[in-house]
């Protein structure tokens, strides 16, 4: 984090604390020395910052100077604040505003006709210890369609929304049922909310089916999060028209790796193989390792109907039982998928590495490969552990290099969040009949390390520039420093289990978190500690402004290795090709717009994935009542 950014964060924090002191001090007169003492500040530059903040607050009319250098608060008029309201399960609303150091509290009786996440106008009283307000107007509905369950009474029919934050039911006039029956899962649209009505009026726009049916519930989750179920016909037609063959002219434009030993390692049920590794032993004793990624950019051109649909989706969505792909399956599972014994177009990062996994040379460019073998993770793991195979030397060497890459990464401050992945076993009706814990093994880590290396090196190839030069516009995957308050909460939580986590800031937090995670390994609370540690972190997002990736301890990091399922990776491929050929790519503004869109869609997809997991957890436990789990 830059010094300016650190200074800005400190100023914001001090401003909030100073305002809180004035609110709690009535009309008491305070100077900067008294405030510094209350804030436990004794560094000269911080005391001067307090003085500067006082001058600014006076200029803004928030405090007044009673006598030279002494200030007190001004009783302020109620203010109007616009923002998106967050409504909890019990109906309480909260609104964030830069005008206050804490969220505006809105009692349930004062939320009016607002629904969770609506854009509202709130009248706020700033003179309370914590600001309170009431909704005076709904400026714009965040959404007007909802998924819910039909409950038909003797006289009235309501739809109970699936989202618990939508804490009000929808009244459905009988003529607006559209064939829905009691117990159906439906999509409704708000039609009216009369002044004196307690509930909004709505109509059923689609009947999904009977509540509890597996497919119905999965479709309900997709609808709830605004995610697509199928591709439009024009996108399907465009995908079907793409030629699968590779011309000799195209091969001539690329570096040919078809004679080099190459293979993929993926989950058992994977179909979209978007990465492969090639292996060569060089005469100088080093290794040439190729990370080959499906060249989606060759088939999906900017502005095409497939590209526009991929932009809208931004990511594939992985529910418990299905994948909602970013690209039509003819592309993701056939044309672009790096299937064995087929020539495939790829974009590659090729490394010359010594026995210590030190990268001596990097080449990045378009290639053609021919995968010799498709391994599952379990198959690769068996070979790493000693099973005989014609690829045994390659896999064991790659595993040894990956271990050294991993050790070096952690030595430089990367955080070890590796945990167990939980997967459901479903019967033919989609009902969960078992739970499996998938552990990260050497085969998984092998792929992970080489993908991380490729992502890091392609990012450096554009973003790492000489002093005085200006970097070209690029898409980075950034991860900011953790919030100090959240770190303190993590330390408090860990202390309940007997762990002592040192109070540290910025870069020092990584080693403290790693020590905590390692100390909890093998203990019953291990996964809980990891979960809380992850929650203490900032969220990784896409951006054109590179601040590095804190969790990985990389100064440069981008997403390059999954263009079949992530749109930013596809854009990165296009930019790499443009810059390699002295062309201009998209503008910074265009890229930033894409980054914001992709980050929001990634969040939405993650929430949908979690919702599907929670639904299956409840379903599974409903059949285990009375049983004990260890």
Describe this structure in words.
The chain has 630 residues and is of the alpha+beta class. The protein has 17 helices and 26 strands. Strand 23 (421-426) and strand 24 (432-438) form a beta hairpin. Helix 14 (508-520) runs antiparallel to helix 15 (526-535). It starts with a helix and ends in an 8-residue tail after the last helix. The model has no long low-confidence stretch (mean pLDDT 91).
Secondary structure tally, helices: 17
**Mind telling me the C-alpha Rg?**
28 Å
Using DSSP, what is the number of strands? 26
Beta-strand content: 15-25%
End-to-end Cα distance:
43 Å
**Share of residues in helices:** 25-40%
Report the principal-axis shape.
globular
Regions with pLDDT < 50 over 5+ consecutive residues? Answer: none
**What summary fits the major beta sheet?**
7 strands, mixed
Overall tally of structural domains: 5
In round numbers, the mean pLDDT is: 91
Structural class by sheet pairing and helices: alpha+beta
Order of strands side by side in the largest beta sheet? 14-21-20-17-16-15-22
Essential attributes:
Arc Repressor Mutant, subunit A, 7-stranded mixed beta sheet, 630 residues, 5 domains, OB fold (Dihydrolipoamide Acetyltransferase, E2P)
